[in-house]
Write a structure and sequence with these properties.
heterodimer; A: Arc Repressor Mutant, subunit A; B: 177 residues; two-stranded antiparallel sheet; 6% strand; disordered C terminus
Amino acid sequence: MAKGKQLSQPEIERLVERARRGDRAAFGQLVDEYKDKIYNYVARMLNDPYEAEDVTQEAFLRAYRSLPRFRGASSFHTWLYRIASNLAIDVVRKRKRQEPTYSLDEPLESDDGEYEREIPDDTGGPEARTSTRETRVAVRRAIMELPEKLRDVMILYELQGETYEDIAEILDVPLGTVKSRLFNARNRLKDSLQELVEAGELEVER
Amino acid sequence: MTCEEVRAELVECWGSTDQLSAGAMEHIEICPECRYEALMLRETHVMVRSLPQERAPEGFTGRVLEWIGREEAQRGWGARLAGLLTPARQPAWARAAAVGTALALAAAGGAVWVNRAAEPHAPQQIVSGQVGTSSVARPAAAGEAELDELLMRHQAMELTQPLADDAGVSLVVYTTN
C-alpha cells in the first residue's frame, strides 16, 4: 500500500534530509503528504475532531523538533505514526481521568443552536443515508469501546492500511502481539455490532 | 476440524470463505453456527470499512509551519539571551579565583550580621500612636544631627515603653550605607 499521497520513497527521503537541515518548506511538503493520514488515525483514536487537530498538529511539531535525531532506522512514516500514537494514547489515558469530550457523531453547537456535522455521503437516498449514518455511529462507538491497545491496532490495520510489520514498529511490540490484538479486536467488534448486523436484512440459515 | 478452530480461521480472514482452508470450508458447509459466524464477521468487516476517511482541516499545513516559525523565533531570542547571561567557559584559575572571592564575601557578610545581632535592642517605630516593628533605613543624605536625634528617640522609647513582643524585633532590618 502506498504510504503517502503522491511522493515516492526517494522523494520523501530527500525532503526529510532537507527538513533535518531546517528547511521549513521541505517539512511543509511532508506535512502535506501525511496530514490526512495522521489526522484520520488520530480522529479515529479519539473520536473528537478538535482534539484530533491539536494532537495531529503537536505530532508534526514534535516530529520537526526531533528530526535532527531521526536516523532513518525506521521509515519516516512509521516514525511519524509512532509520535502520533504516543500522543493519542496520552490523551486517551488523560480522558479516563477527566470529563467526556466532543464526538464526531454529536451535533455541533453555534449561537443559532445545534446543527449536524456535515460529512459527505454519496450513498443512496434519504433512507439509505440515515441507515448509513446510524451504522457509522454504531461502528465508531464500537471502535471507541475497544481497549486502547486493541483500538490502535484495529485502526492502523483496518482503516489506515498499515502492514503487521509496520504496526509492530509503530507500537514497538512483537509481530505476534499485533496479530493477537487484531484477533481480539475483531472478535469484540463482531460482538458489539452483532445486534446491528442482525437488525439488517441478513438471510441467515441457522 | 472443530468449531473453535474454524472460528479462529474465520476471524483471521474476517469471515471471507475465499481464504479458508479446505478443512474449514468443509466444516462450514455442514455447520450452520459457523456459517452464521462467517456471515457476521463479513458484515462487521463491511461496516468497519464503510467509515469515511477524515481529512485534516483547511489550512492545517500553514498553521503547523506558522507554529514552527514562531517557535524558532522564540528559540533564537532565548539562545541570544542565554548567551548574554551565561559567560563563556573560564579557565580553571579564573574559576578558582571566583570561588575564593565568593567565599570571602560570604565570610565578610556573616561577620557583619553577627556584629549587628550583638547590637543593643533594635528600634521600634511609632506609627499613629501604635508600637510596631519596622525596617529602619538610614537615609543616605541624613546629617549627623538627624541620626543622633533618631537614636535618642529610640533610646528614650526603650526606657519608657518596654517591647510588646521581643520576638518581633528579629524582623527589624538594618540597611547600611
